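Final report, Chapter 2: Outcomes

The project's central promise was a pipeline that accepts a single protein chain and returns its three-dimensional structure in a standardized token representation, suitable for archiving and comparison. That pipeline is now operational. To close this chapter, we reproduce one record exactly as it appears in the project archive, with the input sequence first and the structure output second.
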Amino acid sequence: MAINFEDQTTLFNFVVKEGNGVKGMIDSGLSSVPQPFVQPISERIPTEKALTCEATQPIDLSNLDGPQHKEVAKQIVEAAETLGFFQVVNHGVTVELLELLKSSAHEFFAQAPEEKAMYLKEVSPTKLVKYGTSFVPDKEKAIEWKDYVSMLYTNDSEALQHWPQPCREVALEFLKSSMEMVKNVVNILMENVGVTLEEEKMNGLMGTKMVNMNYYPTCPSPELTIGVGRHSDMGMLTVLLQDGIGGLYVKLDNGEWAEIPPVHGALVINIGDTLQILSNGKYKSAEHRVRTTNIGSRVSVPIFTAPYPSEKIGPLPEVVKRDGVARYKEFLFQDYMNNFFGQPHDGKKSLDFARAE
């Protein structure tokens, strides 16, 4: 029986509530973008004359261990202070694993709808796995053109028991092989502001770890839709694997948007709100968004690192002493999460929650 996608309630139920996703809608033979996915003109991403971000020549992390350590650390610091985005190579994750990640993401989303819908938030057999479409689709003016699966890490055995079978092993390996690199980057950024993080503090600030797999189906009219709206990430650092299709855009200081081009074998790192707050604004969480495409379905695989919900967050005392003013208040990270996930993507507006009175 053909689905009546003209009826918005039927469409929303099919895509979001029943878990067929954007992919299910496209697989049903849809040839045009339904109205609930059409973005306001102000949010659309023009692909003509799109800028490419020149500041994203990959940083070679293998040089951190040699005489070029200071030079590489300086590159990382400069990127964190300005764009909030940089790409890295020789990061400790094999190219073979990166290729496996992409193929396992495609394998997960190629499953029958009911195999994915079992992980919808309302029915998921585990709190560690959530599948869905868009960010907060019931609150958005227009739904984002993206399906995703989110896998929360607690320990290896629970990940291997509860994460979805097509991607559990490779996603866990990605997380484990990235963490040394993530800690090295955080330590470099902390040293630059005169802070040494004890291991217990580091673990608290990066205690929440999550691997997502995002799927952006081929779109018949990419100029009308977005894959992900304007936002910054709430955590410490995000590590992202892009596929070769591309579509990730970052906002420059002058208000223009530039694409972060995919580089084979590289990972993208971006600064999150937490790191901006801890550094009292010295480091910039990157505002970014994702376009859709009509040349093929795109996948990306981010690792999100963030504080435990119970962690207290605020500008580090050493940095406030240096700056003479605290630009952000102290708060419980759970409260920041509730605020972040309680509203649609809207640039860096979520940071307003943390600003000092």
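Archive annotation: Residues 78 and 344 are 30 Å apart (CA to CA).
This record, like all others produced under the grant, will remain available to the consortium after the project formally closes.
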